Amino acid sequence: MKGRFGVACLAGAVLAGQASATIVNISTHLGANPVEVTVGSIKHVGVTLSLGPGTHTVTPIDTSGGGAYTAANRFSQVNLPFKGWEWNVFVSTDGGLTGVKHGYGGGSPSNDDPYQATAAAAFAAAPAPFLLTYGSATDVTFFWLDDNFGDNTGGISIDVSSPVPEPFTLSLVGLALATAVRRRRKLA
């Protein structure tokens, strides 16, 4: 019986310690995303998630990582000298009206916000995973923006991982499992 008790506690600690993850896919096409907000002549398109308190990790992913997209191209059907692929996502807590940009492209055609020749090169230049920390449950909108959606290709995919429970929470889960196993042993 001691072996089962140890395995049950270990399994409970492992299960409780795993962070949950949500893959978010943002299409560069109108009508394809749950959120569309117009700010002036610019449309913000994306997805809103309710994130609990704690620190969340946002990781760029591509199709090999389970995402629907590798990168976005807002100029795929026009001949501009600065056209190309980009990887950026904006993060907002006001429903997508404003946001903080993570990544590059989508700004000016200057060299300080360069585009890439391929979707793979754009994804390779995507930002490192970044953290979002909230003290309470917060609705967070992840979005991409443009003023002309008719010539877009691709989209942006991210993995949003929720925090691992604190060690105190893990201890409570382990204690609950230990109590359940002891009660079961007494009944048997």
Give a written overview of the molecule.
23% of the residues lie in helices and 35% in strands. It contains three helices and ten strands, in the order H-E-E-E-E-E-E-E-H-E-E-E-H. It has helices at residues 2-17, 119-124, 167-187; strands at residues 21-27, 35-39, 42-51, 54-61, 72-73, 87-92, 100-104, 130-134, 138-146, 153-161. Strands 1, 4, 5, 8 and 10 form a five-stranded antiparallel sheet that branches. Helix 1 (2-17) packs antiparallel against helix 3 (167-187). The longest helix is centred in the last third of the chain and has 21 residues, at 167-187. The radius of gyration is 22 Å and the shape is globular. The N and C termini lie close together (11 Å).
Q: Characterize the main sheet.
A: 5 strands, antiparallel
- Total of DSSP H or I helical runs spanning 4+ residues: 3
The rough form would be described as globular
Assembly type of the shown chains?
single chain
* First-last Cα distance: 11 Å
Low-confidence stretches: 1-16
Helical proportion, percent range: 10-25%
In terms of DSSP E residues, the strand content is 35-45%
Rg is 22 Å
Structural class: alpha+beta
Write down the overall mean pLDDT. 81
The succession of helices and strands, N to C, reads: HEEEEEEEHEEEH
> Quick one: how many beta strands?
10
